[in-house]
Amino acid sequence: MREISFRWLSNQRSLNLHLIVEGPSHFDTIHSSELSDPTEFTTPSALILTLGLAFEGNEENFEHYAASLAAAGVHGIGFGTGLAFTQVPQVLVDACRRHHLTLIEVPRATRFIAIMSAVSQEQARLNNNAQFALHRQQERLNKAAADGIGALIAQSSRELGAAVAVASASTTVSRVDHGGRSAEAAAREAAEQTGRGAGTSTSTGATITSIFGPTGRRFAVAVTRTEKFDSYARALIRHLAGLASLLLDHPDTTAHTILGALALDAQLASLDTPALQAAFHMVDHHGAIDLVHIVAPSPSRLARALANLDKAEPPLFVRPDHDSALIALPPGAAQDELWSKHARYLRVTVLRNAQWQELSPTLAASLAAHARSLPMGAVSQYSSEAPTWLAEPGVPEALGSRRARTVGLLAAHDARHGTELAKTLRAFLVGNANLAAASAELSVHRHTVRARLDKVEKLCGVDLSNPVTRAELLLLSVSG
């Protein structure tokens, strides 16, 4: 549960509460009990609401009551007056001061259920805010990961307010110290272990480690700071560990993928060598291949999708490029199950049973444009009717000039302000100008999509209600 400030609670005017003794500043659970010793049924950091019915005629027992609650880790007492007691007994006030318990007077007109309801609503609001903040933090980590492991670790340190390091048992890959703390030793120590990582907390700070990688190439991420890690910080650390794993064990670092990418690069460069022919005949001895171009919403999502290809047989060639990849597979191998659970996050175009010699920069550009024109989760057969003229002389230059004044402005704005205007525009246009479709793809409310599109119109000086304008922007969005 999210922590609530006693000061916030006492400031809720509708409840008419009176803060009598200031002890701990926060609580995270609230419940009522009329037991003389409710410690068996309480949790640490709780606020106990009571009318003191068990102490009518024996107020001296409040001393033991307060001592027991404090020993159980309870943070505060909400004492209801006007029924068993007309005012808060002085012995209870003194006991709360001695045992460092917050004491709040609850007038008879204020129902306990009203206090519980107010606390529940505030906790829900804080949880929603924290969930939204976590989502934005994860997005910033995704963007940082595109610039490499060093950028990812630096951004993680800023988001968590902590020292962060990633290391093997013998080598520190990257580290960022924070507040005089270093996580390097913890990362190296964890990388030597065979477990899955753990969290430790002491009076001087907290550390969380996460281990990943195969035996013989094991890495660990360690995060350490003064404050303890709540559930949202832990979730962000798990996301960090996943991204670090993808970067350090990324499929394009394997020899097989590197050689495959080189073969595709050589063919696109129009080289003609016996070695190149032999390479493609490893995929299929007749020289036939299925060509696939996939586009993912982020480099990390692309890496996850490509990770499934590591076990593919017979060999295939992969040429990753930021958030997309060109893939050459044996004929008939480009099946939907190739992408497993990642399919709903991809845009996939497939050209079946082509000769490898047909692969050219023009065809590669057309495959890429076709894939980017698809809605999220779509797998579509490539057709020769696709706009191959996009790669003809003069066309890329003209498109580039116009793109710089439109979608290029959006990309620059997104980079500066952490927004998603370009992504929103593309989803809107690919979805046939349907707000609901764009909202579903982006996982945001339709009003949010509408507000972003209003911003797009102002920045680019365009009218999205004009179908000709939409067609132009769609072409610029998918051909870049």
The best one-word shape is: elongated
**Strand element count:** 17
Give me the number of helical elements: 17
* Class computed from helices, strands and strand pairing: alpha+beta
Brief summary of the model shown:
This protein is α+β, with helices and mostly antiparallel strands and 480 residues long.
Which helices and strands appear, and what pairs or packs with what?
Blueprint: E1 4-5, H1 6-10, E2 18-21, E3 26-27, E4 29-32, E5 46-50, H2 62-71, E6 76-80, H3 90-98, E7 102-106, H4 112-145, H5 149-160, E8 163-167, E9 172-176, H6 184-191, E10 199-202, E11 205-212, E12 219-225, H7 231-248, H8 255-268, H9 274-283, E13 288-295, H10 299-307, E14 317-321, E15 324-329, E16 347-355, H11 361-372, E17 379-381, H12 395-404, H13 407-417, H14 421-430, H15 435-442, H16 446-460, H17 467-478
Parallel strand pairs: 4-5, 5-6, 6-7, 16-17
Antiparallel strand pairs: 1-3, 2-7, 8-9, 8-12, 10-11, 11-12, 13-15, 13-16, 14-15
Helix pairs in contact: 2-3, 4-5, 4-7, 5-7, 14-15, 14-16, 14-17, 15-16
Mind explaining what this structure looks like?
- The protein is 43% helix and 18% strand.
- With 480 residues, it is an alpha+beta fold.
- The strands form 4 sheets. It has a 5-stranded mixed β-sheet.
- Strand 14 and strand 15 (324-329) form a beta hairpin.
- Helix 5 packs antiparallel against helix 7 (231-248).
